[in-house]
Specification:
GO molecular function: aspartate-semialdehyde dehydrogenase activity; NAD binding; NADP binding; protein dimerization activity
Number of strands: 16
Catalytic activity: L-aspartate 4-semialdehyde + phosphate + NADP(+) = 4-phospho-L-aspartate + NADPH + H(+)
Shape: globular
Protein name: Aspartate-semialdehyde dehydrogenase
CATH class of the largest domain: Alpha Beta
Structural class: alpha/beta
Bound molecules: 3-amino-D-alanine
Distance between the termini: 11 Å
Enzyme class: oxidoreductase
Largest sheet: 6 strands, parallel
Helix content: 25-40%
Keywords: Amino-acid biosynthesis, Diaminopimelate biosynthesis, Lysine biosynthesis, Methionine biosynthesis, NADP, Oxidoreductase, Threonine biosynthesis
CATH topology of the largest domain: Dihydrodipicolinate Reductase, domain 2
CATH superfamily of the largest domain: Dihydrodipicolinate Reductase, domain 2
Number of domains: 2
Order of helices and strands: EHEEEEEHEEHEHEEHEEHEHEEH
Number of helices: 8
Strand order of the largest sheet: 5-2-1-6-7-8
CATH architecture of the largest domain: 2-Layer Sandwich
Radius of gyration: 20 Å
Strand content: 15-25%
């Protein structure tokens, strides 16, 4: 057991869910501390019946912490992780900053748990759009080896933070009232619209969000030969990312086999009855730790292609839940050694 645990970025949207999950799942610990920016320091948070004061995140604050779960913007993670490591504190980091560092394992516990134990003081959790996709890919890859993935995302505004969700509401109200609304979180109007850009131009016409899906997938499967062609789109949805995924496998997997493989995979839930209008939709998946799969069908345009639809709560499995599951994995391991 890690005696003293901490959440870094405890007051943010994902930090709040991490707190809920630690309480719900009875995460073993003796003491919990909440670290945040100077702006939030001094405020209090009620946790399992105790009122705890939020502390400012400084190098000295990490003294005495055994395990920290971080959910902060990348520049903050760049700064605090070395402080934590110097203080002997193990970090599960949810930011994007450390994910592609060769020394840092990138872990989805249902996919590559063994990688977590190669850590040198920090373990990264993937970007939300990658996590749900690799979770769905895992049973297919094990059964038939995935060679290529074509994915289009429909990403919720919550992926851009609380401001993104608020902007969806404000912009929708303004559009319905026929009044002007100037976007601030997004580069274009989000109401009644789709924005086919998340992140900045990164490589060969692909955005940073899209290249995360390429590189993180290859790192998690430890297979740089898996080819990924992503298109990431911001959708006027409050929470839960949706993805249209086409995989091509070396060995043919039928739709029926895929349905059975998905159904047998912990963390995945099959919701698939097109004839009756049953498939996963973001509104129905909000607040769940599972990743939902529907519209499972064989590709009409290739021999070994399989198409499906995948929806997941990007703030939970896409962020907080995955980070907490990594921490649970480390706890079990520390108990076993
Ligand atoms: C987004 N994937 O949805 C990002 C958040 N990490 O904007």
């Amino acid at each position: 057991m890690f005696e003293t645990i901490a959440i870094v970025g405890a007051t943010g949207a994902v930090g709040r869910i991490i707190r809920q999950l630690l309480a719900e799942r009875n995460f073993p610990h003796k003491r919990i501390r909440f670290l945040a920016s100077a702006r939030s320091a001094g405020t209090t948070i009620d946790f399992q019946g105790t009122t705890i004061e939020v502390e400012e995140m400084t190098p000295a604050a990490f003294e005495g912490i055994d395990l920290a779960i971080g959910s902060t913007p990348d520049p903050i993670a760049k700064e605090f992780v070395p402080w934590a490591k110097a203080a002997g504190c193990l970090v599960v980091d949810e930011s994007g900053y450390w994910r592609m560092d060769a020394e840092v394992p990138l872990v989805v516990p249902e996919v590559n748990p063994e990688a977590a134990f190669t850590h040198k003081g920090v373990i990264a959790s993937p970007n939300c759009s990658t996590t749900q996709m690799v979770l769905a890919m895992k049973p297919l890859h094990d059964a038939g080896r995935i060679k290529r993935v074509v994915v289009s995302t429909y990403q919720a505004t919550s992926g851009a933070g609380v401001g993104g969700q608020a902007e969806l509401i404000d912009a929708s109200r303004a559009a319905l009232a026929g009044s002007d609304h100037t976007p601030t979180t997004f580069a274009h109007p989000i109401a009644f619209n789709l924005i086919p850009q998340i992140g900045s131009l990164k490589h060969a016409g692909y955005t940073s969000e899209e290249m995360k899906m390429v590189f993180e997938t290859q790192k998690i499967f430890a297979d740089p030969t898996i080819k990924v062609c992503p298109t990431c789109v911001r959708a006027p949805v409050s929470n839960c990312h949706s993805e249209s995924i086409l995989v091509e496998t070396e060995k043919k997997i039928t739709a029926e086999q895929a349905r059975a493989l998905f159904a047998a995979t912990p963390g995945l839930r099959v919701v698939d009855d097109l004839a009756n209008g049953v498939y996963p939709m973001p509104r129905d998946c909000d607040g769940s730790d599972d990743t939902f799969i529907g519209r499972i069908r064989e590709d009409l345009s290739s021999d070994n292609g399989l198409a499906f639809w995948c929806v997941s709560d990007n703030l939970r499995k896409g962020a907080a839940t995955n980070a907490v599951q990594i921490a649970e994995l480390l706890t079990k391991h520390s108990a076993a050694v």
